[in-house]
Design goal:
By secondary structure, the chain is α+β, with helices and mostly antiparallel strands. The protein has helices at about 10-20, 25-40, 90-105, 120-130, 165-175, 185-190, 195-200, 250-265, 280-290; strands at about 1-5, 50-55, 60-70, 70-80, 110-115, 130-140, 160, 210-215, 220-230, 235-245, 270-275, 295-305. The protein has a twelve-stranded mixed sheet, with helices on both faces. A hairpin with a 5-residue loop joins strand 9 (about 220-230) and strand 10. Helix 1 packs across helix 2 (about 25-40) and helix 3 (about 90-105) packs across helix 4. The structure holds coenzyme A. Coenzyme A binds near residues 242 and 280.
Length: about 300
């Protein structure tokens, strides 16, 4: 079996294995694969970045990696035909290693993957390929209601939106929010604020009018709130929210969430989503109290070079 980067003529077949787990009748499904691919390509996913396991010209397994930003990548776990299930851990490990090597060739220093909590075989394959646990993430959502539109931030809290010439202040504040963070703490020492900000811009659709810097009554920057529109649905995501360490524990985090709900409500979007490290108790407390409900729990594993 050959493990390598996908060839152009194999892209659709490999994507079908990746997305559906097994290929269907090639000719009749070609159109719907094409449609599926077009839809996923509109999310920015590049299907030429697939690693395939090929035997006698047939794609038996596929895994993909996406470049999140210039220095980080995400590996989508391998999917394979039922016929190769028995040898999957060894095969998966080989494919993951190949995906990591390709991502590194393109400049990635950090490679992550998100797996189902109970997916032990896949977690084993990633660990065998050198990945370490980063965090357990709780995925949460909240449907804004009419009352959210009337929510007022405290009068002394002022929000301004992102502009290119304010990027330096955004970076300074993001850097200050790393202090004592419980939000995937292992990452805060690995990535610069510039790299993180670039990653946030590429997560979903970046809209500068939905990125906020908050100031207190002394005009001191106290935190940031970054909301991105998700590409394939009518949802906004809290890409990042952070309060500068010395201002924590005074209700600012909750005020930011209420402000986010109000802005989402004004844009007539239907859902606000987020993912939070389950060890991040202050953040979890805020989201639960603000009415967010958990929709899934997943494990994040990473490798850093
Ligand atoms: C998570 C975070 C935004 C919370 O901001 P905050 O302004 O402290 O939030 P709040 O003041 O609204 O408090 C949240 C809860 O945690 C408690 N808390 C927060 N920091 C605390 C501290 N240093 N000491 C004691 N309690 C604290 C609050 O009392 C509150 O609980 P309560 O409602 O039961 O009283 C902030 O800790 C932070 O920026 N952390 C680093 C980045 C991060 O984790 N972002 C979240 C990504 S999902």
């Amino acid at each position: 079996m050959e493990i390598r980067l996908v060839r152009p003529e194999e892209i659709n077949q490999a994507a079908a294995v990746l997305l559906l787990g097994r290929p269907r009748c090639p000719s009749s499904m070609e159109k719907s694969y094409g449609e599926l691919l077009a839809r996923l390509k509109s999310t920015g996913m590049d299907f030429s970045r697939q690693i395939v396991a090929v035997k006698e010209g047939e794609v038996l397994a596929s895994c993909a990696f996406t470049q999140v930003d210039p220095t980080s990548a995400h590996v989508i776990a391998p999917a394979m035909l039922p016929s190769v299930e028995t040898e999957n851990i060894k095969l998966e490990r080989g494919m993951i290693e190949c995906a990591v090597a390709e991502a590194r060739r393109l400049g990635a220093k950090l490679v992550q993957t998100v797996l189902e909590k109970e997916d032990w075989p896949r977690q084993t394959a990633f660990r065998d390929a050198g990945f370490e646990p980063l965090a357990e993430l709780s995925f949460m959502e909240r449907h804004p209601q009419r009352a959210d539109c009337a929510m007022e931030a405290p009068p002394w809290l002022r929000f301004i939106t992102y502009e290119k010439d304010r990027e330096g202040v955004f970076l300074d504040v993001i850097r200050s929010t790393y202090e004592g963070t419980l939000d995937c703490p292992a990452l805060s020492s690995l990535r610069t604020a510039e790299e993180t900000l670039e990653g946030h811009k590429r997560s979903g659709k970046f809209d500068p009018l939905m990125w906020f810097l908050a100031f207190d009554k002394r005009n001191t920057p106290v935190g940031v709130l970054l909301l991105n529109l998700m590409e394939i649905s009518d949802r906004f995501n809290v890409t990042f929210m952070g309060v500068v360490a010395e201002f924590r524990g005074r209700g600012l985090g909750m005020a930011f969430v209420k402000y986010a709900l109000r802005r989402i409500c004004e844009t007539h979007r239907t859902v606000l989503t987020l993912a939070v490290d389950t060890r991040n108790w202050p953040a979890c407390r805020i989201y639960k109290e603000a009415g967010f409900v958990e929709t899934a729990r997943k494990e994040v594993l990473y490798r850093y070079f």
